[in-house]
Design a protein that fits this description.
The complex is a heterodimer. Chain A starts with about 25 loop residues before the first helix and ends with a strand. Chain A has two domains: about 10-255, no CATH class; about 280-420, Sulfite Oxidase, Chain A, domain 2 (Alpha-Beta Complex), CATH 3.90.420.10. Chain A is α+β, with helices and mostly antiparallel strands. In chain A, about 40% of the residues lie in helices and about 15% in strands. Chain A has helices at about 25-50, 80-95, 100-110, 120-150, 160-190, 195-200, 225-250, 250-255, 285-290, 305-310, 340-345, 370-375; strands spanning about 295, 305, 315-325, 330-340, 355-360, 365-370, 380-385, 390, 400, 415-420. In chain B, about 85% of the residues lie in helices and about 0% in strands. Chain B is flat and about 70 Å long. Classes of the chains: A alpha+beta, B mainly alpha.
Chain lengths: ~425, ~140
């Protein structure tokens, strides 16, 4: 019988991987950056879930309560820019990590084609967990980035998939970090970062050791190791600069060229970022015209108030930030009636929840429930005016909710009903 | 027979891997609960295939093409090309005007500006790289 030599297709042969830069040190440096950056994105993401106060009313939009959708505290109202900070970090740091993730994947790619493909049950399980890690990483980044640009080319709920996708990712990420931490520490000791940053192309030599990441037959370098690190870091800073302005505001907004909400809408009192226009959710002028009334329910004296009657109540003004889950924010001077004053007018003394409904007919965010601390904050407003002018239709005329540190989608626009629930006489 | 010989690693490895896989599997059941499971799986698997088996070989081949002819100053092409590509994949929906006008309806803003802005960004990146290349070539 003739012996047939099995020739593996090229990526499965170690000689195929020629870059002299690949090696455990480079992979570990990138891994260390992710080990610092990913927790910021993960924690702020979980905080965003808590900020929705999912235990109240119908705030939970990700299905029946499960075991992982826990949160341990009530979302505070101070500082008023809290959600702008946490969600700005979530989106901006997430986008800035894209180059690090991609270069990290490039650096570890020989592992995908390692041969023999399965050495032991342990190796098989670890490869399954790595496949989950890579696919959930790409899934989380892709869904988050597309959501921020209002593009939904899938047939599942973004909220549920991004939230539970995060748990798939976190399980695989923590496992990978735990299993690889010793390797990472060992590899990082092999070279000093500062030394490596001094080495130009001529001094760029392959890493040494027995790691499968190190090429068996390296080609001559075409870029230095510091060049790769500089390019990765520079790309990350570049994306940061293109995005951060929509959250930070001020002059940075000018350079947020590609950010979905980095643009200037004009100089009028209502010329600031809009997330849902009145037309896009089917609000008609008939619904919000003179016939509009605000119903205040739950107390011994149910009320129906016209806008003129609301304007006759004591008015208060506060600088408050609308911060959106998509990572942008805007701070404006809002004025209107305090929610707690409206409770008092309706005869409500104590309550568990303030349920708010919009005249909007469809959509997940036509209603929201506020916690007692959110509704009782002295800066929690039923806003009627902004920057000294009446609200525009797109900003929620005749009346909208503005509460410090409340996620933007819960700052309900075109409010028609305030219902104090769990009231006691 | 020891666990190490059968399994290939220690008990801690086995337990932590099983724990992570169990949590991930539970999370998947939760995503499936409110969606078409096939579509969710397609997105997770598709992301893996799109990166590992399409994007990675593609950019590797492009890079080999660029440096295969021992092109001088290959990094002056690589750097702006990589930055242009990266900004494209991150902001592709805006640049390509995807989403059936949802962005415009929601924000009152036109999506059309992003293609132009991205092209100008590319122009600036390549021009800056050319300038640096020319200055350095002259100094040598």
């Amino acid at each position: 019988m003739k012996r047939v030599a099995i020739v593996l297709p090229s990526p499965f042969r170690r000689e195929c991987w020629r870059s002299p830069l690949r090696g455990p040190w480079l992979t570990s440096v990138l891994g260390a950056v992710l080990l610092a950056g990913i927790p910021i994105v993960a924690v702020t993401g979980l905080l965003s879930y808590a900020a929705y106060e999912p235990s109240l009313g119908r705030n939970n939009l990700i299905g029946d309560p499960g075991l992982l959708d826990f949160y341990v505290f009530s979302w505070p109202t101070s500082p008023s820019w809290l959600y702008a900070l946490t969600q700005g970090l979530h989106v901006t740091v997430g986008i800035a990590l894209v180059p690090i993730v991609l270069v990290k994947l490039w650096s570890a790619m020989p592992k995908l084609f390692e041969w023999p493909a399965l050495r032991s049950p342990a190796h098989a399980l670890e490869r399954v967990s790595l496949a989950l890690l890579v696919s959930s990483t790409l899934f989380q980044f892709a869904t988050g980035i597309l959501n921020a640009q209002l593009y939904y080319p899938w047939r599942f709920s973004f909220l549920a998939a991004h939230f539970y996708g995060a748990w798939v990712f976190l399980a695989a990420f923590v496992l990978h970090a735990v299993l690889k931490l010793p390797t990472m520490r060992r590899s990082l000791r092999q070279r000093r970062l500062l030394d490596e940053l001094r080495r130009g192309l001529d001094e760029t030599k392959p890493e040494t050791g027995d790691s499968a990441l190190i090429p068996a037959a390296p080609s001559a370098p075409t870029i230095s190791r510091r060049g790769v690190l500089g390019l990765t870091g520079g790309a990350s800073l570049g994306l940061l600069a293109l995005t951060a302005g929509q959250s930070v505001g001020g002059p940075l907004r000018e350079i947020a060229l590609l950010a979905p909400h980095g643009r200037d809408l004009g100089s009028g009192p209502n010329d600031f970022q809009i997330n849902k226009t009145a037309a896009s959710v089917g609000i008609t002028s008939a619904q919000t015209g003179d016939a509009w009334r605000l119903r205040v329910a739950g107390g011994p004296r149910p009320l129906e108030l016209s806008r003129a009657q609301l304007l006759a109540l004591p008015q208060h003004s506060y600088e408050l930030t609308i911060a959106c889950v998509e990572g942008w924010s805007t701070t404006q001077s809002w004025s209107g009636v305090r929610l707690r004053d409206l409770a008092a007018v309706a005869g409500v003394e104590t309550f568990d929840e303030l349920y708010v409904e919009s005249v909007q007919r469809g959509g997940s965010f036509r209603r929201a429930s506020l916690s007692v601390s959110q509704a009782s904050d002295r800066r929690a407003l039923l806003a009627l005016r902004v920057n000294g002018a009446d609200l525009s239709a797109d900003h929620g005329y005749p009346a909208r909710i503005v509460v410090p540190a409340l996620p933007g989608v819960h700052c309900t626009k075109w409010v028609s009903l305030l219902e104090f629930r769990g009231t006691r006489a | 027979m020891s666990l190490h010989r059968v399994y290939g690693a220690g008990a801690l490895h086995l337990l932590s891997t099983l724990a992570a896989l169990a949590v991930a599997a539970y999370a998947f059941t939760r995503i499936f609960a409110g969606a078409q499971p096939a579509n969710v799986v397609a997105w997770f698997a598709g992301a893996l295939v799109a990166h590992d088996l399409i994007a990675f070989p593609l950019y590797t081949a492009l890079d080999r093409l660029a440096r295969g002819r021992r092109m001088r100053g290959v990094n002056y092409v690589r750097v702006p090309a990589l930055l242009a590509g990266l900004s494209f994949i991150v902001f592709a929906p805006l640049i390509l005007g995807l989403g059936d006008g949802r962005y415009e309806r929601a924000t009152t803003l036109s999506q059309d500006v992003y293609l132009g802005r991205w092209l100008l960004l590319c122009g600036a990146l390549f021009a800056a790289s050319a300038l640096v290349y020319a200055l350095r070539a002259r100094r040598r």
